[in-house]
Structure formats: C-alpha cells, structure tokens
C-alpha cells in the first residue's frame, strides 16, 4: 500500500505502476475537457447530508428505492427476442444491423425519399448518440481535408449536451457556434429566435438538431416547428445532422 505523502511504495513502485521510479509517459497527462455542469451538480448533490434530497440531473429512471429499473417496453422486447427461434445473438458487422439501419433511415427520410429510392443512403448503427456525433464529426473533417469544399461552422443548440462541443473539437473542428433553443420565460423552445440565428448563419454551416429526447431540456420540436425549420434549411446551403437518442 502506498503512502499518501509519497509517490512510491515500499517495493519501489510509484503510483503510476512503473517499477524503478521511472516516470510514465502518461504521468503529466491532463484532461482536455472541463467538468460539465452535470458533473458539478452531482458532486454538489453528494456533499448534501440531508436525507430528503432528490437528484434531478440524471438521465436514468429510478424506483422509489433509488434503484434503476427496466422500462416495460424494454422488457417486452427482451421477451420477444428470447422467444424468437430465428434470433441469433451474433456480433453485427462494423456498420451495425443492416435491417435496423434500413428501417431507421426509412423512418428518418421516408420510404419514398429520392435518396432511398436511388440507393444513395448509408446508415450506420452506433452504441450511443455521442458515438454517432463523433462519426459525423470525423466525416466532416475527412470531407474537408479530401475535397476542401467545406469550411463552415457547426451550430449546436443552446443549451445542449456538454459533450457535443468537445466531440467536434476532438475531431479538429474548432468553429463551434450556438443557436437559440430553450427560452426560460416561455418554458419551451423559442422558434422565433431559433430561426433568427439560423438565418444569420453563413453558407455551408452544419446545424446539429435533436430528433428526440433533447438534452438537457427534454423539449422536442413539434411537427409544425420541424416543417418551418426544414423550409428555412431548404432555402439555405446548410448541412443538417439530426440525432435521436
């Protein structure tokens, strides 16, 4: 056991596990990401000693006993899969389940979409929305380096998930901007200010939209709002990335 005041234990192994006292190449590694507001809130929550406290910043469903529980729909799907004799639990390909991505793109674009009819759509399944964002960011970076046709900024909603800006920056995209989304007075999405920000956006901007379960507000766009935003985007030379969680 190492002493709190020393970087080496009695066997001459320092805290980073390198025998002989040599410094590891990771010794001075620092985290590039600052603590998110969610992390700060959780840390503050843990310091409160009152018994009657509730943490509202989490994304999971908890029971009255404070334990996570399975949603009914998830349990129902698990039962269906376990009872399906044709289901084979093998690892999918690197692009994900083909049937899943096919149906997902049909839901997103519509079965009659020219892009789908002309076989110009490629769907990729990812473990989470943040992985999908990272793939999109890498695609934009590669697109710019190879074709040199894109140099516009990336627009994120205000507020948005704390990790989004860092994901784009890690892919080499530094020009990150915001568009108005949540309005405290209205307690909902402010479409007017949102449209104003997008109208001022330069050409070749990339606008990241949340298809469902917008975080951290929980306020999703209505069908009418989607229609208005789509009309604006069709008039502009924007690239749009919509992510569903």
UniProtKB/TrEMBL annotation:
One of its GO terms (molecular function) is L-aspartate:2-oxoglutarate aminotransferase activity. Residues 1-12 have a biased composition (Basic and acidic residues). GO terms for biological process: aspartate biosynthetic process. It comes from the Eukaryota. Keywords: Aminotransferase, Pyridoxal phosphate, Transferase. One of its GO terms (cellular component) is cytosol. Its cofactor is pyridoxal 5'-phosphate. Residues 1-26 are annotated as: Disordered. Its EC number is 2.6.1.1. It is an enzyme of class 2 (transferase). The keyword Transferase applies. It holds the Pfam family Aminotran_1_2. Residues 83-236 form the Aminotransferase class I/classII large domain. InterPro entries: Aminotransferase_I/II_large, Asp_trans, PyrdxlP-dep_Trfase, PyrdxlP-dep_Trfase_major. The keyword Kinase does not apply. Homodimer. PANTHER family: ASPARTATE AMINOTRANSFERASE (PTHR11879), ASPARTATE AMINOTRANSFERASE, CYTOPLASMIC 2 (PTHR11879:SF36). This is aspartate transaminase. It comes from Seriola lalandi dorsalis.
């Amino acid at each position: 056991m190492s002493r709190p005041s020393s970087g080496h234990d009695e066997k001459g192994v320092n805290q980073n596990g390198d025998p002989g006292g040599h410094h590891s190449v990771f010794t001075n590694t620092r985290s590039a990401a600052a603590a998110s507001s969610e992390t700060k809130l959780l840390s503050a929550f843990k310091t409160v000693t009152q018994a009657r406290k509730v943490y509202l910043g989490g994304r999971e469903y908890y029971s009255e006993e404070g334990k996570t529980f399975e949603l009914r729909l998830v349990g129902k799907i698990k039962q269906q899969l376990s009872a399906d004799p044709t289901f084979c639990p093998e690892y999918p390909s690197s692009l994900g389940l083909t049937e899943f991505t096919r149906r997902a793109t049909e839901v997103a674009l519509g079965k009659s979409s020219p892009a789908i009819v002309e076989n110009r759509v490629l769907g990729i399944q990812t473990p989470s929305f943040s992985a999908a964002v990272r793939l999109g960011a890498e695609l934009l970076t590669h697109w710019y380096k190879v074709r040199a046709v894109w140099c516009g900024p990336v627009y994120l909603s205000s507020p948005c998930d704390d990790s989004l800006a860092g994901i784009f920056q890690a892919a080499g995209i530094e020009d990150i901007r915001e568009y108005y989304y949540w309005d405290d007075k209205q307690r909902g999405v402010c479409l007017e200010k949102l449209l104003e920000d997008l109208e001022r956006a330069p050409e070749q901007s990339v606008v990241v939209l949340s298809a469902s379960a917008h975080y951290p507000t929980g306020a999703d766009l209505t069908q009418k709002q989607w229609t208005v935003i789509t009309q604006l985007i069709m008039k502009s030379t924007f690239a749009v990335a919509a992510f569903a969680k």
